Amino acid sequence: MKRSLENNIKAIYLMGFFQGFLVVVPVFVPLLQGHGLSMSEVLQTQALFALTIALCEVPSGYVADIWGRRNAILLGSGLNALGFLSLLWADTFVDFLIYEAILGVGFSLISGADLALLYDTEVYLRKIGKRGAGASKSLSRLISVEAAASGTAGIGASLLLMWSMDWVVTVQAFTGFAPFLLGLLVVEAPRPGDTARDTDHGANARHILDLLLFGKPVVLWTAFAIAVFGLLAVYVFWVYQKYWEIQGVPLAWFGYIWAAFALTVSLAARYAEALEKFLGYRKLLVLIAALPLLGLFGMAFGVGWWGVICGFAVQISRGLSMTIFYEALNSRVPGDFRATVNSLVSLGVRGIFIVTGPVLGIALDSYGVSATLIGLAVLFAPLMGLVLIPLVVRIRREEAEDTLQPEPAAAL
After folding, report:
1. Which of 214, 317, 358, 366 is most buried, judging by how many CB atoms fall within 10 Å of its CB?
2. CA separation for the pair 207, 134 (Å, rounded)
3. What's a GO cellular component annotated to this UniProt protein (predicted)?
4. DSSP 3-state of 349
5. Looking at the whole model, is its pTM more than 0.90?
């Protein structure tokens, strides 16, 4: 059992790599446009993906907590494999809607379960005296691995485009099976209460809501911060490729730019903890908020490659915020319902995108990329303040309470 648990970490890292190694993503907008879809229709497919996840996110996280994280990961990665396989014959708007629906269910099952299993594995190994990176570093490394995989996929996409877009789709269809095969290698990590798992679902639901709403205040405001910054990241994610097209960047370069952006997220996530120790959490939060605004305005007013380069600011913020916020959340949530809480947080992002995603597509088609980027900056600047200022206040209160307690709370 101990040896298998130690192998869990490597297996989850490899799963994370192949979950991020999506060669179709860096050229997904041109792929769909090549099949006759407008930007509005492209964003409608993503709205369906978000809707599917919204419907399945919390139930799937709860299933992972009750039924087992390994089982949820296997089912989700199996569905993802089938979804990527369907790209081989996808041609119409409806075909891509079906593709997104399958992936929505698959990713919702994995979302939260992989983080929770990794975190629980590290906690248990430390408990039995095994040395390791620790839960905090493991989370940042997983985020870093997934971002690095996205970068590798970007390079792969550009190389495959030397032949044709069909090669990109074919490679994605086959590499999509790797996470399922790796999932067979992981085992369930022991958790408190595993010998008598509570199947009173009503009581479990009340306990989860109590954790979020009436537990440590930092948990709730961290969840809000993840939702705001995550939503902005999703918006910009779908603007990038259209923006590069408008700036006259050749399609063959899309993958390389994507790789550089992903590497930036990976490095930012990898060194987020060290940067927090150097700057302190308050200055780091200011940096996390300032960078995407600078990036959005830079892209809106920049021309050619200068505008493309400004996008790196958004990616740095993304890597820092994911690592800092998710560590703050997971370190304050009990292991029994960690996957459910992670899923609830993701639900906040997906739920809003269901309605606003198509609106973003309409804005891009009607008003252009620059105006849309300025609108995003104007909208999110106050939202960031609304979540970060209360978060800092709650952290300071928690620190003050910690001075009266024998056990220090986890740092942000």
Report:
1. 317
2. 27
3. membrane
4. helix
5. no
